[in-house]
Amino acid sequence: MSAAAGAAAGGTGAAAVPGVGRICVVTGGSRGIGFAVAADLSAAGHRVVLAARDPAALRSAAVALPGPVLAVPADLTRPDQVDALFARVEREWGPAEILVAAAGVGASAPLERTTDAIWEEQLAVNLTAPFRCLRRALPPMRAAGWGRIVVIASVAAKVGQPYVSAYTAAKHGVLGLVRSAAAELAGSGVTVNAVCPGYVDTPMTDATVAAIVARTGRTEEQARDALARMQPIGRLVRPDEVAAVVRLLVEQEALNGQGLTVDGGGVQS
Ligand code: NAP
Q1: Rounded distance, CA 188 to CA 145, Å?
Q2: 163 annotated active-site
Q3: 125 C-alpha to center of ligand 1: Å?
Q4: Whose CA is closest to atom 25 on ligand 1?
Q5: Which residue from 73, 97, 98, 177 puts its CA 20 to 30 A from 191's CA?
Q6: What is the percent of the chain where pLDDT is above 90?
């Protein structure tokens, strides 16, 4: 379905089925984990808004979804574009009822080579943007007495590993935001949770593989295998496995303030 056709279909469709037809904003929905989450929510009968920067990638993602979809290009490091995203959703469909903050970027460098630019980009995309999206989405959720906010964090929200200090700081920060928001909103009908995956088979991990190949001279297969072995299950996590956990968090009111690790048993918390 095209984005425009999806927008046109959005006012009706599955909204009559209880618990279905919710308006979901999925940041980073053009590929990887965000796309898998969007596809899963769409297949479950929800109306899905995809937000990311690249309009062409958004269009390709939108046509692959089975239900009503709205594709909105936005650089979420820009406060005006965060506001414009939610304002457009409100105009076209109504306020967001489910927010899945999956947009993110990775970077690795030893501490001494972690530049201000790396540090600032990691915090801007992985911490400040989810905060601004949450803050903008929250008032109508509170007013309605129902809302779901899920942030895709990482096992890096829970443990430190070498060469990813800026990413790890941002992900620890966003889990702190989730926990504090959940405590503040408990009992309001709005839940706030995080999913904390290990290495997932997405374009971000493809980039990590390419960086390992460039730095170490290992083959692509060796680099991918090394990342697969970081999970005790000996493979990369699949994006649909992350999407299934997001759906659980959307459907279960009693889950609140959690950071659910999805890494095959490596990090126990
Ligand atoms: P990905 O394949 O690289 O996709 C990232 C998505 O975020 C894309 O849609 C990208 O679209 C969007 N994005 C990036 N910067 C943006 C910005 N400034 N404004 C708006 N959208 C932006 O990454 P992924 O692997 O699916 O990762 C998704 C999330 O899961 C990230 O938060 C990541 O940290 C987390 N995570 C990933 C893994 C993993 O192994 N892959 C593990 C744990 C956690 P544009 O570039 O077009 O904007």
Answers
A1: 6
A2: no
A3: 9
A4: 204
A5: 73
A6: 92
